[in-house]
Structure formats: C-alpha cells, structure tokens
Amino acid sequence: MTFTSLASSSRGNCYVASDGETAILLECGISFRRIKKELGFDLSTIRGCLVSHEHKDHAKSVMDMIKSGIEVFASEGTAEALDCALITPVEAGAQFRVGSLEIMPFRTWHDAKEPLGFLIYSRQDGERLVFATDTVNLGHTFPGVNLLALEANYDKDILDRCERMPEKVRHRVTNSHMEIQSLCRYLRTLDLSACRVLYLLHLSNAASSEGRFIERVRQVVPQHVRVIVCEE
Ligand SMILES: [Zn+2]
Questions:
Q1: Quick one: which of 106, 103, 93, 167 has its CA closest to 137?
Q2: What is the pTM of this model?
Q3: Which residue pairs, CB below 8 angstroms and at least 24 apart, start in 61-69?
Q4: Ligand 1 center to 54 CA (angstroms)
C-alpha cells in the first residue's frame, strides 16, 4: 500500500491511498482544480473519497467529487453538517469495502459533528494503513499496522509562545487537535513491529517545528520505521 500527500495543513488536506488495484482519496479539502492537477488530470483511477469531517480544509471539494462520479464516504453527522444527501453514510465500527480495500471507520475527537478516522486494509497486498487527523487523541490501538498517517498538529511550548494568537484560537487548537506529546504517548502504546512508515500530518503553521517533531517521534518509534512529515 502507498500513501501520498497532495496537501497537508489547515489550508487544505488531501491524500491518496493505493494498493495498486484500488486508489482512493482521503479528504478533498483543496480546490477541485488542484486535485485534478495533482492527479495528472486523470480521476478515472480514483474509486472513492473518504472524508473525516465537515471542515472546509477536509471537505471543500465534496460536491465536485460527487459531480464527477466519485463516491464520497463520511459519517451521517458529517453529511448533515455539509447538508449533502449524496454522501454515502458510514459509521464507526461498521466495515465497508471499496474495490480491494476494506475500510473500518473509527471515532476521533474534534470540534465537528461526527468525525472519523479510517483503518484501511488491502486484500491485494495484505497491508494496513491507519489514517487519523484533527483529533485531540486516539482511543484504539491497531495491531499489525504497516502505515500510519497521523496528525501532529502543535507543540504546547511553541503554542504558549505564540503571543499574537487570539485566546479563542488557542483554546480551539488545544481542544481539537493533536499535540506532539499526546501523539508520542499514543505511539508508545502501539506495536509497531510491522510498521514501515509514519506520516506526520497537518502541522500547524504557527505552533509546530518539523525538525523537533521528527526528533520527538524518533525517540518513541522503532529504528526501522521511516518518519515523513507531509508538507503543505
Ligand atoms: Zn477540522
């Protein structure tokens, strides 16, 4: 299985997961024009699009996706918040299938109506990808995971030094996004013996440090795991 980032920040998120037989988009929070461009103007290989929640930086192009014949999967809460009856509703704990991919949504914690993360298993190559962004924490461990794509949004120490950040924004960040220490604590609970790559997603512009985040994460994941920061 491969995981590719097309965009990863609060300005927009969009990723591709593929096992060679089935390719899907994870999020469509950038312009449809940009998605098409990033995919070489060929959407025919994309079998579906999973959307974690309704915020614009994740769901901007939902209608364009649907109009171009790509099935969009999201929770009922997300579909309601987007006021879109054309989304295929999925729910935490109920597995569904897109081509050769078996997808298990799970609950995440964010200031959205019914946010989800996704565990994606390929029947083609037997690999497992966990995708979770925009969540203060994670409640599941994922045995045998091969690829992890997780939010690493901010560092509390850097955030505390962002004097110009309005209190309201600061409050929102700390109550809806993943702090680097929380991520490290979570990573310690996982069996990463089969994990090949850890992708760090959605780094905050104001309150993160790519270098420090890699260092921090390296201290808690086994040597064989590659750590990649997904750039804007
Ligand atoms: Zn969000």
A1: 106
A2: 0.96
A3: 61/28, 61/29, 61/30, 61/31, 61/32, 61/35, 62/28, 62/87, 64/28, 64/32, 64/35, 65/25, 65/28, 65/32, 68/32, 68/43
A4: 7
Domain boundaries, the chain: 2-229
Instruction: Say how many Å lie between the CA of residue 174 and the centre of ligand 1.
Output: 12
Confidence class for position 163, pLDDT limits 50, 70, 90: confident
* Rounded distance from Cα 134 to ligand 1 centre (Å): 5
Residue 144 Cα to ligand 1 middle (Å): 28
200 φ, ψ (degrees, to nearest 5)? -100, 125
CA of 146 to the centre of ligand 1 (A): 25
pLDDT digits (tens, 9 = 90+) for 140-150: 999 999 999 99
User: How far does the centroid of ligand 1 lie from the alpha carbon of residue 124, in Å?
Assistant: 31
| Fold topology of 2-229 | Metallo-beta-lactamase; Chain A (3.60.15)
pLDDT digits (tens, 9 = 90+) for 96-133: 999 999 999 999 999 999 999 999 999 999 999 999 99
Residue 165 confidence (pLDDT) above 80: yes
CA neighbours within 13 Å on the CB side: how many for 27? 33
